Amino acid sequence: MSLKTEPSTFSIEPPDFDKYLELSRKFEIGGMSPNTAKAYSADFSKFTHWCFHHNREYLPAEPATLCAYLASISDKKYSTIARVCVSIARYHRENDLPSPTESQSVKAVLKGIRRENGIACDAAKPILWAELVKMIGCQMRDIRGRRNAAILAIGWTMALRRSEIVAIDVQDLEITDEGMFLNIRRSKTDQDGKGKCLFVPRAGGGMCPVIVVETYKNILWFKSGPMFNRVRKNCAEIFYRSPHDGRITDQTITEIVKEAAVLIGLSPLQYSAHSLRRGFATECGRLGIPDRIIARQTRHRSMRVLQGYIEAGELTVNSPLTAVYGAPPPRAISGARQSPDSSEAEPVESPAVAEPEPSFHDDRYLD
């Protein structure tokens, strides 16, 4: 009796296979944020156009091709160039192809560009608390002005990214006697949607951010949908279309910040939506608040980035020269004698000291 069996074969493909394959592609695309996917697509599109123009293969791309392309965009910021390499590497991995970014020649070119251009970035200037109070105070009392004031207040006090401000729905915000609670359903560092609840207490005196946001929320006649909607340009008292399809965009937040900067006499070129989030961290750094307390509000995944904001705030506060300027005058030399007829101290003659021989490490003898 033979135990040998023929391998089983399927002559008909299961009808659900294509459906599951399409679903898997959807999950794969959803693994990154829309903004990240958009940036990767734009980077790779520019790379392919350059390759077409120079008659070079772009997928897979040779290390020499990528090296030449990086040299052609070497006048850009290093952070932009590094992101281009990430974009090209991702497209190669998605197509199961070896990435040219792993080549030593490409790494050497990147290192050279980094040394030549530096890695410093032109970050937006932070908005400090005193400037925020002025910006909010300059807003009009119509719906657009109330909305803009609420955006400035909630964006600064909760250290929100502009995408997080745009995504706020009315039901995400709860205002109580203690302050306001905001449920962040999803963010740049929380793509899985674990969520985070932030809190801002009421201010005891002066400008209260909670009252600013509460005033705007009280004039909304809808209890769900986007918190911040577009307002008609020809009438600042009417929302654009309906409140459920007029959500503002990321660019609107930047425009609101720049307009507020102009109102208090600042240059709009130096400020952006990021100025709110950075300003919160910088102001807290000036006040000496511990890093872990600041990070609880900012939700920074990289403490190195947060530390940069904090150090900017501490720069003018913890300067060693502050102690030098306020130090008492040095005491009189213990060996000095006081003249009986004068308050002036007579210096004691020091014994003669032989002049040292010139040294190559002593700049006193250099012209």
Note the topology.
Blueprint lengths: L16 H13 L4 H20 L9 H10 L5 H17 L9 H14 L11 H9 L5 H15 L4 H5 L6 E3 L3 E6 L11 E6 L7 H10 L31 H14 L10 H13 L4 H8 L4 H12 L5 H6 L11 E2 L6 E2 L21
Antiparallel strand pairs: 1-2, 2-3, 4-5
Describe the structure.
The protein has 367 residues and is mostly helical. The chain has two domains: 32-117, Orthogonal Bundle (DNA polymerase, domain 1); 129-314, Orthogonal Bundle (hpI Integrase, Chain A), CATH 1.10.443.10. It is built from 14 helices and five strands. The chain has helices spanning 17-29, 34-53, 63-72, 78-94, 104-117, 129-137, 143-157, 162-166, 209-218, 250-263, 274-286, 291-298, 303-314, 320-325; strands spanning 173-175, 179-184, 196-201, 337-338, 345-346.
